[in-house]
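To close the section, here is one more complete example, presented without commentary so you can practise reading it yourself. The ligand is S-adenosylmethionine.
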Amino acid sequence: MNGSDFVIDPRVTGFVRLDLAKLFGNRNRAVLEIGSGKGRFLIAGAAEQPGVNFIGIEKSLHYHRLIRDRVTKRGLDNIRLVNHDAFLVLRDMLANASIDEIHVYFPDPWPRKREQKRRIIRAEVLTEIRRVLVPGGSGIYVTDHRQYYEAAAPVIEQFFRSERRIPSADDPPRTNYEAKYREEGREIFEVRFWA
Ligand SMILES: C[S@@+](CC[C@H](N)C(=O)[O-])C[C@H]1O[C@@H](n2cnc3c(N)ncnc32)[C@H](O)[C@@H]1O
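Output:
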């Protein structure tokens, strides 16, 4: 990869459907993360599993640049990044049955009533998640926010076969927020789901 070739910028390309085989130069499994933050999950995953393709969607330009620099430094060629709103990327850029796993760690909880429509776990986003997952594909949603969890878990259950779980204290933290919240002793809630 040269420079930032691993960055897909819909402001330049338009919201075109991505051909993942072309984009990665292979037909390996694809793992998508929504809201990658500082990129811990993506970078650890891509380094440990070079035969898996990772796509990170991160809305914040600050975090996007941070991940981009970390990917460049590590020379990982199995990551692609998109700096945009995940709903639009899912809806307009990802093809049907193109993703094997979707991970959503500690999405912004938007606790105020009038802002809850912005939550990433909502019906219109789950419709797209269901469309892009391959048959038998899976997903994970993790949060420390009990009210968000209690609202989101039943919506996920409407779309997928799913299982609620409380991650064990022995499970290694997957992201920066998880590491921080574990240290603080916060409760963490998880839903795993299958297409
Ligand atoms: C609370 S942070 C969690 C970061 C990381 N997943 C972790 O667990 O450490 C939520 C992240 O999701 C990103 N985000 C929020 N809404 C988003 C959206 N609609 N599309 C893509 N990213 C989004 C934010 O910019 C932020 O980086």
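Once you have examined the tokens, check your reading against these statements. The first strand starts at residue 7 and ends at 8. Residues 7-194 form a domain with the Rossmann fold fold (CATH 3.40.50.150).
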